[in-house]
Amino acid sequence: MADRHFTEAILKWYQENRRSLPWRGTTDPYPVWLSEIILQQTRIAQGQAYWERFMERFPTVRDLADASEDEVLRLWQGLGYYSRARNLHAAAKQIAAAGRFPDTLDGIRALKGVGDYTAAAIGSIAFGLPAAVVDGNVYRVLARYFGIAEPIGTPQGKRIFTARAQELLPPGQAADFNQGMMDFGALQCTPQHPDCPSCPLQRTCRAFLEGRTTMLPVKKAGPAIRQRFFTYLYIRCQGQTAFRKRPAGDIWQGLWEPLLFEGPLPEAYGNAVLLKKGVRHALTHRLIVADFYCLETTKKPSLPDGWIWMDEKMPAQLGKPRLVEHLLSLL
Question: Considering only CA atoms, which of 250, 222, 244, 242 is closest in space to residue 301?
Fold first, then answer.
């Protein structure tokens, strides 16, 4: 009875409060997939503009597949987690090679960068597949309503929450229920200061009845934040500058940057002018503290392996980390 009440309440709430988003109202898997990849670890307020730019530049999955990686990364610039953009591009090539978007959960999950949640979201919205989504919003709503104290972010927690979400899924209404759960968590049952007074589930919500709203969901402690110290040197020489594409195996793979030293500026570049010191740039589990320098010279210094000389106008056309964009804005 409680489960049926919960499901019916979510569906009714969604019909009355659903967010108006440009990728809704379609069963075309391409815009749905694109929105799901962009919104991984990105708020809708920021991600929607990126979705619109991608749809304008790449109106079909074939257009995206045919683009260069540099162009995709440049369009993605500022969203962070750049592996998402590379995976998006690789998956577009998979779809284009197959000649169609996969329409089964296993087929969708086989796309580069697509996990269980994203496959369930695309499958239910685009193809009506009976697969429940479990993201941060869903974890929070289920943990509070059913009083589930199992920590999220653990294998056991994922199994428990996924099974419960699947049990609640109404036949033939997977898309509305999944989107309703996501919107309900984003608008009603928010992380901080949930709107309990107007909540249609208030009378049967365990967290509300037991005064545990701020305690649920229980989160597993994350890894410690690691600091890295970067010194960037922008060189101006005869209308050229030195840049490199960052290699695999570290942050910002495939993005471009000027000369980089991890630590202080070497003495050989003592004539460089300090543009800004101690700029802090937060990433997941990392904090980068960076100093920015500019060196103007008439003689090209030798460059470390990986860096190349290019026209000073070129970096504006390349995909760059946001931290590097900040440097260029100071020049």
Answer: 242
